[in-house]
Amino acid sequence: MAPPAGVGAAVAGAAAVTLLSAALAFYGPPLDAGAHLRYTGAPYFAAISALKAGADLSHVFCTREAAPVIKSYSPELIVHPVLDSPDAVHEVEKWLPRLHALVVGPGLGREDALLKNVKGILEASKARAIPVVIDADGLWLIAQQPTLIQGYQKAVLTPNHMEFIRLSEAVLRDPVDSSDRRGAVLRLSQALGNVTVVQKGEQDVISDGEQVLECNLQGSNRRCGGQGDLLSGFLGVLVQWALHAGPEKTNGYGHIFISHFEIFELFSALSCGCLWCVLPHKAVQPPSLPEYGRSTTTSDMIAEIGPAFSRLFET
Ligand SMILES: NC(=O)C1=CN([C@@H]2O[C@H](COP(=O)(O)OP(=O)(O)OC[C@H]3O[C@@H](n4cnc5c(N)ncnc54)[C@H](O)[C@@H]3O)[C@@H](O)[C@H]2O)[C@@H](O)CC1
Ligand SMILES: Nc1ncnc2c1ncn2[C@@H]1O[C@H](COP(=O)(O)OP(=O)(O)OP(=O)(O)O)[C@@H](O)[C@H]1O
Ligand SMILES: [Mg+2]
Fold first, then answer.
1. Alpha carbon distance 52, 306 (integer Å)
2. Mapping DSSP to helix (H, G, I), strand (E, B) and coil, where does residue 238 land?
3. CB 245 within 8 A of CB 10
4. Residues lining ligand 1, judged by CB closer than 6 Å?
5. pLDDT, tens digit, for every residue of 85-94?
6. Residue nearest to ligand 2 atom 7, measured at CA
7. Which ligand is nearest to the CA of 141?
8. Cβ distance 243 to 256 under 8 Å?
9. Which residue owns the Cα nearest ligand 1 atom 29?
10. Which atom of ligand 2 has the smallest separation from the CA of 280?
11. Which of 27, 185, 268, 297 has its CA 20 to 30 A from that of 209?
């Protein structure tokens, strides 16, 4: 089934942003020195996934040193070597009017200087009501300063197993009850003021603080480095898409999370699960990639995003 015109147009017009990191010498021994060069794959995966999902442009804001590396992976990405510059916040802020969603965290690292810049960029994005997807080291920042995202319902957090524990314990000041994943995700979302939380794992658990849904469709047979990054880039587009669809197309619901599920119904494509995890899942399901099997990597999945999307939405 084809996307309704308005929704399809929103995807076509969406732009996603990925932030990376840098090492700044004058802040003393950095916590995670060199992460910006070690993890150049992560922002690439997120940014290319946004393009494959339908964004017309995908910008990557990264450190000066990381920029040529990331650009060399793909001429399709627009790469800004500004994140470690003294006026990084201003350098990114001037692009915000052109951007529809921000993906923060893949490959960012945890150095104070970088996190400080990202904090400024997040605040500027919130002031413009830009939707943000926060993943990986962006979640490290939120664990240190949960107020940064408190009550911002245009945010989606996508923690993996460890990131969830870290974030949850920082916010709730209680050990996570691992026997009750649904309850744990619900409580974290509520404590953050109904920010959408997508806890990744063999099954993805999603909550907006009111409802909890679980995506347990058969998908990847394992974790492979980078598939979480794909998810965050993809989500950047979908969040914009859901918000653009608006309450008139989402039965009056305001939350991104609910909006997505209403969009699912519009597409008549799914009976359960979440679009953002279904697509990567579908991408690695037979018969799409039977030849890869256990050797499936994130790069193999990228090639399958388009065909998976078509399969999901064909009439
Ligand atoms: N090719 C690349 O450049 C990649 C870079 N990455 C970046 O690497 C940095 C660190 O990310 P990490 O994900 O290592 O974060 P963390 O340093 O918080 O480590 C998470 C840990 O949790 C473990 N874990 C995850 N799911 C688990 C489960 N279900 N059960 C038990 N253990 C589980 C992982 O193996 C990992 O050791 C981030 O900047 C991230 O974006 C990753 O995104 C992977 C790909
Ligand atoms: N044990 C598993 N078996 C099958 N699929 C999994 C498993 N764990 C995660 N996944 C799939 O991988 C997606 C990303 O989750 P994962 O835990 O790998 O995130 P991540 O650690 O952030 O990834 P990345 O390596 O990109 O940082 C999940 O949404 C889910 O679809
Ligand atoms: Mg990750």
1. 6
2. helix
3. yes
4. 39-42, 106-108, 136-137, 160-163, 201, 225-226, 228-229
5. 999 999 999 9
6. 202
7. 1
8. yes
9. 161
10. 31
11. 268
The least confident of 51-60, 69-78, 182-191 is 51-60
What's the CA gap between 158 and 141, in Å, rounded?
Answer: 13
Bridge partner list, 157: 134, 197
DSSP string, 172-188: H-S---TT-HHHHHHHH
* CB-CB contact of 18 with 103 (8 Å): yes
Q: What confidence tens digit (pLDDT) does each residue in 22-52 have?
A: 322 223 334 577 887 899 999 999 999 899 8
Is the backbone peptide bond immediately before 287 cis, with ω within 30 degrees of 0? yes
- CA-to-CA distance for 74 and 109, rounded, in angstroms? 22
Distance CA 55, CA 101 (A): 10
Residue 223 alpha carbon to ligand 2 centre in Å: 5
Residue 99 contacts residue 17 (beta carbons within 8 Å): yes
Q: Is the pTM of this model over 0.80?
A: yes
Three-state secondary-structure class, residue 276: helix
Structure tokens at 41: 């794959």
Going by CA atoms, what residue is nearest to atom 4 of ligand 2?
A: 222
Question: How far, in Å, from the CA of 248 to the mean position of ligand 1?
Answer: 39
Q: Ligand 1 atom closest to Cα of 166?
A: 18
Ligand nearest to the CA of 274: 2
Q: Which of 260, 267, 299, 268 is nearest to 283 (CA)?
A: 299
* Cα-to-centroid distance, 199 and ligand 2 (Å): 10
Q: How far is the CA of 275 from the centre of ligand 2 (A)?
A: 15
Distance 1 CA to ligand 3 centre (A): 31
Ligand that lies nearest to the alpha carbon of residue 229, given by its number in the listed order: 2
